[in-house]
From TrEMBL:
The keyword DNA repair does not apply. PROSITE patterns: HTH_LUXR_1 (PS00622), HTH_LUXR_2 (PS50043), RESPONSE_REGULATORY (PS50110). This is Putative two-component system response regulator. It comes from Actinoplanes missouriensis (strain ATCC 14538 / DSM 43046 / CBS 188.64 / JCM 3121 / NBRC 102363 / NCIMB 12654 / NRRL B-3342 / UNCC 431). The modification 4-aspartylphosphate is found at D58.
Length: 227
């Protein structure tokens, strides 16, 4: 990724939505829209050709949906991050995008400044986990997903403090909130998160949240800060 400009591919089957997204993103000098795609197949083709830093991905599209396109891009262009855009209330299966490798998702009614901030967050290698949006998604995934004995074993290999951090990540706390909760420096929390991802062979915080629920470390419906 460029030090100053984030390269973005916009994917949506609605012409007006794509035009609106391009207009919003083009107003920010730190973002460059390098291409547009109208369906999942085009998203994969352009994603592999252009190798953008971030793909803004719609879910329901013709030919190939956003979840399938996300899965392909995650496997073939791992450096590209996928940020799902959804109406949420209508996209009952959007939670599948997280398992497909998406780094997070936003509602289409998100304010322009929040969209721009989200793109930079994802481009920087972080995941977008807004508790207000993701709680139902994660809860549903936890219920639907079968237990993974291998992942459960990896969880047991974490230190007690790493488990504490993972539990709070799964509850939607930011690094700053986790640091305050555990009375440690934020840099220490970042180190713990990196070690958790490495030990459990996970791509990002989104996958860490999913694993925390799948393994039972955190139960659906458990309250946490900001939830």
């Amino acid at each position: 990724m460029s030090d100053s400009v984030v390269r973005v591919l916009v994917v949506d089957d609605d012409d007006l939505m794509r035009a609106g997204l391009r207009a919003v993103l083009s107003s920010d000098s730190t973002i460059s829209v390098v291409g547009e795609a109208a369906d999942g197949r085009e998203a994969v083709t352009f994603g592999q050709e252009l190798m953008p830093d971030v793909v803004l991905m719609d879910v329901r599209m013709p030919h190939e949906d956003g979840i399938a396109a996300t899965r392909t891009l995650s496997a073939t262009v791992p450096a590209t991050r996928v940020l799902i855009l959804t109406t949420f209330e209508d996209d009952d299966y959007v939670f599948g995008a997280l398992n497909a490798g998406a780094s997070g998702f936003l509602l289409k009614r998100t304010r322009p400044e929040q969209l721009i901030e989200a793109i930079h967050t994802v481009a920087a290698g972080e995941s977008l986990l807004s508790p207000a949006i993701t709680r139902t998604v994660i809860d549903r995934m936890a219920v639907a997903a079968p237990p993974d004995p291998a992942m459960a074993q990896r969880l047991r290999e974490l230190t007690a403090r790493e488990r504490d951090v993972l539990e709070r990540v799964a509850r939607g706390l930011s690094n700053t909130e986790i640091a305050s909760d555990l009375f440690v420096e934020e840099s220490t929390v970042k180190t713990h998160v990196k070690r958790i991802l490495a030990k459990m062979n996970l791509r990002d915080r989104v996958q860490a949240v999913i694993v925390a629920y799948e393994t039972g470390l955190v139960r659906p419906g458990t309250s946490g800060s900001g939830w």
